Amino acid sequence: MTKAHAEDLEATINETIKLLITRTGKRQADVAEVLGITRGPLTQRLLGNSNWKINDLPVVADYFGLTFAELTSGYTAIAAAGRLPPPGSRARAT
């Protein structure tokens, strides 16, 4: 994977997680708690200032009721597959 592809994937993941947070009515603090971090580091990841840890992505995917592959495929692909979580739903805590 080239650096450009890695950066594109990172941007896709960031955008997807931000859109999922908005769609479900969750807060960044909710996602951070599931990851065992504070909101600050999560915000830095979502802004692209810090990289995701590969082990965190399946946790985030599960939190939103998705698979790792779905999360990394992007929001549009998730929507096209009919796999978006319902608006304002409460994702299960893990």
UniProtKB/TrEMBL annotation:
Lineage top rank: taxon: Bacteria
Domain annotation HTH cro/C1-type: ranges: 17-71
A molecular function (GO) term: DNA binding
InterPro entries per the UniProt record, alphabetical: Cro/C1-type_HTH, Lambda_DNA-bd_dom_sf, Tscrpt_reg_BetR_N
UniProt xrefs under CDD domains: HTH_XRE
Protein name: Helix-turn-helix transcriptional regulator
Lineage: Bacteria, Bacillati, Actinomycetota, Actinomycetes, Frankiales
